[in-house]
Amino acid sequence: MELITVNKKIEEYSKQLDFLIRLEFRITYSPIRRLPLYLLIWVLLILGLIFFTGSESFITLKVVGISLTFIVVPAGVLIAVPIVWKYYKRKQWKRKSIKCELADNTEHQMAFDKEKLFFSTSKDQYEIEWKVFGFYALYKRSIFLIPADNIYSATCISELEIGAETFNHLKAIAEEKLSLV
Prior knowledge:
Radius of gyration: 24 Å
Order of helices and strands: EHHHEEEEEEHHE
Structural class: alpha+beta
Strand order of the largest sheet: 1-2-3-4
CATH architecture of the largest domain: Roll
Helix content: 55-70%
Strand content: 15-25%
Number of domains: 2
Mean pLDDT: 85
Distance between the termini: 28 Å
CATH topology of the largest domain: PH-domain like
Protein backbone atom coordinates (compact mmCIF):
# COMPACT_ATOMS: atom_id res chain seq x y z
CA MET A 1 0.00 0.00 0.00
CA GLU A 2 1.33 3.36 -1.01
CA LEU A 3 0.66 6.29 1.34
CA ILE A 4 -1.36 9.12 -0.17
CA THR A 5 -1.21 12.60 1.31
CA VAL A 6 -4.69 13.84 2.16
CA ASN A 7 -5.02 17.54 1.42
CA LYS A 8 -7.66 18.57 3.94
CA LYS A 9 -10.06 21.20 2.62
CA ILE A 10 -12.18 23.01 5.20
CA GLU A 11 -14.96 23.74 2.69
CA GLU A 12 -15.20 20.04 1.85
CA TYR A 13 -15.08 19.13 5.54
CA SER A 14 -17.96 21.51 6.26
CA LYS A 15 -20.04 20.00 3.43
CA GLN A 16 -19.25 16.50 4.68
CA LEU A 17 -20.42 17.34 8.20
CA ASP A 18 -23.61 18.92 6.81
CA PHE A 19 -24.29 15.74 4.87
CA LEU A 20 -23.79 13.56 7.97
CA ILE A 21 -26.20 15.73 9.96
CA ARG A 22 -28.84 15.57 7.21
CA LEU A 23 -28.34 11.83 6.84
CA GLU A 24 -28.81 11.28 10.58
CA PHE A 25 -32.00 13.35 10.62
CA ARG A 26 -33.33 11.61 7.52
CA ILE A 27 -32.74 8.17 9.03
CA THR A 28 -33.94 9.05 12.53
CA TYR A 29 -36.98 11.17 11.73
CA SER A 30 -38.24 9.72 8.45
CA PRO A 31 -41.27 8.07 10.14
CA ILE A 32 -42.52 11.47 11.36
CA ARG A 33 -41.32 13.76 8.58
CA ARG A 34 -44.87 14.26 7.27
CA LEU A 35 -46.25 15.12 10.71
CA PRO A 36 -45.96 18.94 10.22
CA LEU A 37 -47.82 18.64 6.91
CA TYR A 38 -50.62 16.65 8.55
CA LEU A 39 -50.82 19.18 11.37
CA LEU A 40 -51.04 22.08 8.90
CA ILE A 41 -53.77 20.32 6.91
CA TRP A 42 -55.69 19.62 10.13
CA VAL A 43 -55.52 23.25 11.26
CA LEU A 44 -56.55 24.52 7.79
CA LEU A 45 -59.50 22.10 7.70
CA ILE A 46 -60.69 23.25 11.12
CA LEU A 47 -60.27 26.92 10.19
CA GLY A 48 -62.15 26.30 6.92
CA LEU A 49 -64.91 24.53 8.81
CA ILE A 50 -65.22 27.45 11.23
CA PHE A 51 -65.13 30.32 8.73
CA PHE A 52 -66.86 28.85 5.67
CA THR A 53 -69.85 27.23 7.32
CA GLY A 54 -72.77 28.92 9.02
CA SER A 55 -72.51 29.70 12.71
CA GLU A 56 -75.16 27.12 13.70
CA SER A 57 -74.28 24.33 11.25
CA PHE A 58 -71.88 21.56 12.21
CA ILE A 59 -71.64 22.98 15.75
CA THR A 60 -70.72 19.62 17.30
CA LEU A 61 -68.07 18.96 14.66
CA LYS A 62 -66.62 22.44 15.19
CA VAL A 63 -66.37 21.98 18.96
CA VAL A 64 -64.77 18.56 18.64
CA GLY A 65 -62.38 19.86 15.93
CA ILE A 66 -61.32 22.88 17.98
CA SER A 67 -60.88 20.71 21.07
CA LEU A 68 -58.73 18.22 19.20
CA THR A 69 -56.72 21.08 17.69
CA PHE A 70 -55.93 22.37 21.17
CA ILE A 71 -54.56 18.91 21.95
CA VAL A 72 -52.78 18.19 18.65
CA VAL A 73 -50.95 21.51 18.20
CA PRO A 74 -49.19 21.45 21.62
CA ALA A 75 -48.35 17.79 21.05
CA GLY A 76 -46.80 18.72 17.70
CA VAL A 77 -44.80 21.46 19.36
CA LEU A 78 -43.62 19.04 22.05
CA ILE A 79 -42.41 16.69 19.33
CA ALA A 80 -40.74 19.50 17.33
CA VAL A 81 -38.83 21.20 20.16
CA PRO A 82 -36.41 18.29 20.87
CA ILE A 83 -35.79 17.84 17.15
CA VAL A 84 -34.95 21.52 16.68
CA TRP A 85 -32.76 21.42 19.81
CA LYS A 86 -30.89 18.38 18.51
CA TYR A 87 -30.35 20.10 15.16
CA TYR A 88 -28.99 23.17 16.95
CA LYS A 89 -26.61 20.98 18.99
CA ARG A 90 -25.41 19.23 15.82
CA LYS A 91 -24.67 22.60 14.21
CA GLN A 92 -22.67 23.61 17.31
CA TRP A 93 -20.78 20.32 17.05
CA LYS A 94 -20.06 21.07 13.38
CA ARG A 95 -18.63 24.51 14.20
CA LYS A 96 -16.49 23.03 17.00
CA SER A 97 -15.23 20.27 14.68
CA ILE A 98 -14.26 22.81 12.02
CA LYS A 99 -12.38 24.89 14.62
CA CYS A 100 -10.48 21.79 15.72
CA GLU A 101 -9.69 20.93 12.12
CA LEU A 102 -8.40 24.46 11.49
CA ALA A 103 -6.18 24.23 14.56
CA ASP A 104 -4.84 20.82 13.50
CA ASN A 105 -1.76 21.38 11.32
CA THR A 106 -0.68 17.75 11.11
CA GLU A 107 -0.24 16.06 7.78
CA HIS A 108 -2.73 13.28 7.08
CA GLN A 109 -1.90 10.29 4.94
CA MET A 110 -3.86 7.24 3.97
CA ALA A 111 -3.55 4.01 2.06
CA PHE A 112 -6.01 1.28 1.25
CA ASP A 113 -6.39 -2.06 -0.41
CA LYS A 114 -9.14 -4.69 -0.57
CA GLU A 115 -8.56 -5.80 3.04
CA LYS A 116 -8.09 -2.60 5.04
CA LEU A 117 -7.62 1.14 5.18
CA PHE A 118 -4.54 2.67 6.78
CA PHE A 119 -4.44 6.20 8.20
CA SER A 120 -1.41 8.05 9.46
CA THR A 121 -0.64 11.42 11.03
CA SER A 122 2.45 12.64 12.82
CA LYS A 123 0.79 11.55 16.10
CA ASP A 124 -1.15 8.37 15.24
CA GLN A 125 -1.29 5.43 12.89
CA TYR A 126 -4.19 3.05 12.65
CA GLU A 127 -5.69 0.44 10.39
CA ILE A 128 -9.36 -0.26 9.84
CA GLU A 129 -10.61 -3.40 8.16
CA TRP A 130 -13.37 -3.01 5.59
CA LYS A 131 -15.67 -5.26 7.63
CA VAL A 132 -15.91 -2.49 10.28
CA PHE A 133 -17.85 -0.40 7.79
CA GLY A 134 -21.38 -1.51 7.02
CA PHE A 135 -22.40 1.16 4.54
CA TYR A 136 -21.12 3.82 2.24
CA ALA A 137 -22.70 6.97 0.89
CA LEU A 138 -21.77 9.27 -1.96
CA TYR A 139 -22.44 12.98 -1.80
CA LYS A 140 -21.18 15.34 -4.46
CA ARG A 141 -17.47 14.51 -4.68
CA SER A 142 -17.12 12.77 -1.31
CA ILE A 143 -17.45 9.21 -0.13
CA PHE A 144 -18.55 8.32 3.38
CA LEU A 145 -17.54 4.97 4.86
CA ILE A 146 -20.09 4.45 7.62
CA PRO A 147 -19.84 1.93 10.47
CA ALA A 148 -23.08 0.14 11.32
CA ASP A 149 -23.13 1.40 14.91
CA ASN A 150 -22.52 5.17 14.67
CA ILE A 151 -23.00 7.48 11.72
CA TYR A 152 -20.68 10.09 13.25
CA SER A 153 -17.79 7.62 13.22
CA ALA A 154 -17.89 7.76 9.44
CA THR A 155 -14.72 8.24 7.48
CA CYS A 156 -15.21 11.04 4.95
CA ILE A 157 -12.90 11.32 1.98
CA SER A 158 -13.24 13.82 -0.84
CA GLU A 159 -12.04 13.57 -4.41
CA LEU A 160 -10.38 16.95 -3.93
CA GLU A 161 -8.40 15.60 -0.98
CA ILE A 162 -6.93 12.46 -2.59
CA GLY A 163 -7.25 12.98 -6.34
CA ALA A 164 -9.70 11.63 -8.90
CA GLU A 165 -7.93 8.37 -9.78
CA THR A 166 -7.41 7.34 -6.15
CA PHE A 167 -10.96 8.39 -5.27
CA ASN A 168 -12.42 6.26 -8.07
CA HIS A 169 -10.36 3.26 -6.92
CA LEU A 170 -11.58 3.75 -3.32
CA LYS A 171 -15.15 4.09 -4.57
CA ALA A 172 -14.87 0.86 -6.56
CA ILE A 173 -13.68 -1.06 -3.49
CA ALA A 174 -16.46 0.47 -1.36
CA GLU A 175 -19.09 -0.50 -3.95
CA GLU A 176 -17.76 -4.05 -3.90
CA LYS A 177 -17.51 -4.41 -0.10
CA LEU A 178 -20.29 -2.20 1.35
CA SER A 179 -23.99 -1.44 0.97
CA LEU A 180 -25.11 1.94 -0.33
CA VAL A 181 -27.13 3.95 2.20
